[in-house]
Design goal:
The complex is a heterodimer. In chain A, β4 (31-37) and β5 (44-50) form a beta hairpin. Chain A is globular, with a radius of gyration of 13 Å. By secondary structure, chain A is mainly β. Chain A is built from no helices and eleven strands. Chain B is an all-beta fold. In chain B, the strands form two sheets. In chain B, strands 2, 4, 5, 9, 10 and 11 form a six-stranded mixed beta sheet that branches. Chain B has a five-stranded antiparallel beta sheet with strand order 1-3-8-7-6, with no helix packed on it. Chain B starts with a strand and ends with a strand. Classes of the chains: A mainly beta, B mainly beta. The A-B interface holds A 41-45, 48, 92, 96-98, 102-109 and B 30-31, 33, 35, 41-45, 48, 87, 89, 91, 95-97, 99-102.
C-alpha cells in the first residue's frame, strides 16, 4: 500500500491569488494523479503527473491555470492559479494502477474555499 | 465515449443487504474498482474485479460480468457506519480510471 500526505489540509483564499498544494508519497511511484471533487460530485481528473516529463492534462484543464511539478518519484505539487470562487473544491492527489500499485490510493485531500 | 452509470442514492435498513449496481462503457478494459467515500474524507479502496464472477471480502462482495458491462457491490449485515458514497470506476486500456458519479447509501436504524 501507499501512504499519501497532502498540505495544506484546507485553506481559504482570496480571489485572484494562487495556492500550491503539496503531495508526498511514502514510496516511489511512476505516476501521480491530481483530482478535483466538488461538493456532492464524483472525482474529476485534472492531470497525470509523470516524473521527468510534462504533466498530461484532461480536457477542460490547462497548464496555465493548474501548473504541476513532479521533481522526483515521491513528490508533486499542484498550483491553482488566479483563483475564482468556482475553484472552491477538494483537491486530491493519488497514485494508482499502472504504477505497480494495484489499486488507487488517495491523499486526504485539500479543501479549498475561494472568497 | 466512456461512461459509468450507477444510481444516485439508495436507502437500506441496518442489518439488511443492499446491492449497488454499476454499468460501464470504457475504451478497452483493465478492471473495475469499487471505492467507499465517507463525507469529507478521501475515497478508500474496497474491491477490484478483472475476471467474471464474484469476489467476496468479509461483508462486502463485488461481481463482474464483462460481456454485459455490469458490476455490482453487495453489502451484507449493514451497519450504520456503512453510510457513505460508493464509487464505481472502470480502468480503461490506458490504465486511466473512469469514475462514476457515486451512489450515496443511507442506512436507517
Amino acid at each position: 500500500s501507499a501512504v499519501i500526505s497532502q498540505k495544506p489540509s484546507r485553506d481559504i483564499c482570496q480571489r485572484g491569488t494562487s495556492l500550491t498544494i503539496q503531495c508526498q508519497v511514502d514510496s516511489q511511484v511512476t505516476m501521480m494523479f491530481w483530482y478535483r471533487q466538488q461538493p456532492g460530485q464524483s472525482l474529476t481528473l485534472i492531470a497525470t503527473a509523470n516524473q521527468g516529463s510534462e504533466a498530461t492534462y484532461e480536457s477542460g484543464f490547462v497548464i496555465d491555470k493548474f501548473p504541476i511539478s513532479r521533481p522526483n518519484l515521491t513528490f508533486s505539487t499542484l498550483t491553482v492559479s488566479n483563483m475564482s470562487p468556482e475553484d472552491s473544491s477538494i483537491y486530491l492527489c493519488s497514485v494508482g494502477p499502472g504504477t505497480g500499485i494495484y489499486e488507487q490510493y488517495f491523499g486526504p485531500g485539500t479543501r479549498l474555499t475561494v472568497t | 465515449g466512456q461512461n459509468i452509470d450507477q444510481p444516485t442514492e439508495m436507502t437500506a435498513t441496518e442489518g439488511a443487504i443492499v446491492q449497488i449496481n454499476c454499468t460501464y462503457q470504457t475504451s478497452g478494459f483493465n478492471g473495475l474498482f469499487w471505492y467507499q467515500q465517507h463525507a469529507g474524507e478521501a475515497p478508500t479502496f474496497l474491491s477490484y474485479n478483472v475476471l467474471d464472477g464474484l469476489e467476496e471480502k468479509g461483508r462486502f462482495s463485488s461481481f463482474l460480468s464483462r460481456s454485459k458491462g455490469y458490476s455490482y457491490l453487495l453489502l451484507k449485515e449493514l451497519q450504520m457506519k456503512d453510510s457513505a458514497s460508493y464509487l464505481c470506476a472502470g480502468l480503461d486500456s490506458n490504465y486511466q480510471l473512469i469514475w462514476g458519479a457515486g451512489t450515496k447509501l443511507i442506512i436507517k436504524p
